[in-house]
Design brief:
The protein has 195 residues and is of the alpha+beta class. Helix content is 29%, strand content 24%. The chain is built from 7 helices and 8 strands; from the N terminus they run ββααααββαβαβαββ. Strands 1-2-3-4-5-6-8-7 form an 8-stranded mixed sheet, sandwiched between helices. It is globular. The chain binds coenzyme A. The site of coenzyme A has 22 residues, from α2, β5, α6, β6 and α7.
Length: 195
């Protein structure tokens, strides 16, 4: 798949050789990892089965996850993408008010989950909205999703703001996400493909 260029960023398919940098930027830094996933992870943890490494490996076959680079110098600054929702455990994190919004509840609706995460040094410049817009466009375009969903933990105000900036309809989740280590429900986001 070709690289996606935005005005300040370049998104390319993520590769296994990105793992150490992605770990350092996103999973080893408590400021990024805690509001996002609820815990800091070691390089060994992200390399384990079901860890980030497996997500990166899958990206070679399912081109939905991108390394986000600054176009000026091609420095890696984070990850962005739309990932398929397949496992029951992924769906179980979403408890919306309306049963019709539960992922997998409408036959023929193809749903993907938004991922945007940037290293702390790259926040507050509009890069997340720029990368998010690019992957949403791709998601509704060549990836052919009919709906993009997102789940953000209760301590993640920046994540909620990003969803709203990208045009997602947001609502409270009806259950806490144990993955984020919070007992307080977070926020769900839904964005349908333009008709
Ligand atoms: C979620 C996350 C990506 C948001 O990052 P962010 O820096 O807040 O978002 P953006 O890059 O879009 O930047 C937006 C801010 O930059 C400001 N900004 C500064 N210069 C800007 C410019 N040139 N263009 C646009 N916005 C600019 C905006 O005003 C906005 O500030 P505000 O939030 O005070 O209104 C980041 O917090 C993160 O990586 N968190 C961990 C991962 C995560 O939780 N992801 C959840 C979604 S899947």
């Amino acid at each position: 798949m070709k690289v996606i260029e935005t005005s300040r960023l370049s998104l390319r398919l993520v590769a296994l050789s990105d793992l150490e940098n992605i770990h350092r930027l996103l999973y080893a830094d408590p400021e990024v990892a805690l509001p996002w996933t609820g815990h800091v992870q070691s390089l060994a943890e992200v390399s384990a089965p079901n860890g980030v490494l497996s997500m990166i490996s899958r990206a070679a076959d399912e081109p939905g996850l991108f390394a986000v680079e600054r176009a000026a110098d091609y420095a890696l600054i984070g990850l962005a993408g739309i990932l398929p929702i397949r496992r029951a455990s992924d769906r179980a994190r979403f408890v919306p008010a309306s049963p019709a919004d539960v992922p997998g509840s409408v036959e023929g609706r193809v749903e993907g989950e938004l991922v945007v995460a940037l290293g702390r040094a790259h926040w507050n410049r509009g890069y997340a909205a720029e990368a998010g817009t690019a992957v949403v466009t791709l998601g509704f375009g060549s990836l052919r999703y009919s709906r993009i969903v997102a789940s953000v933990g209760s301590r993640n105000e920046r994540g909620v703001k990003l969803l709203r900036r990208l045009g997602f309809r947001t609502e409270p989740n009806q259950r806490a996400d144990p993955d984020t280590g919070s007992s307080v429900p977070g926020t769900l986001g839904f964005l349908d493909a333009p008709s």
